[in-house]
Amino acid sequence: MVFIQVRNVDERLRESAKRRAAELGVDLSTYVRNLIQRDVARPSVNAWLDEILADPIGEPFDAAEAVTDARAERESEIRRSLGDAKC
Known about the structure:
The protein has 87 residues and is an all-alpha fold. The chain has helices spanning 11-24, 28-41, 45-54, 63-81. 66% of the residues lie in helices and 0% in strands. It starts with 10 loop residues before the first helix and ends in a 6-residue tail after the last helix. It is built from 4 helices and no strands.
């Protein structure tokens, strides 16, 4: 593991972060590490925009068919969970 030092943090921000960490029952280092982990787990704005722009727009979509398919899938899952051999 490596050490990261954050400089020039306003004292009010540090105290607010310490209070939030205490509310969550963790120390400040754990709180900040969790913030970093959560942030880097999400795509950057540029990566998200690239993904959105690469997605085809305007393809035909049949909502009724989608609902019918979803209902059939849900029904099949229910039958499986109940042990119905006919699914």
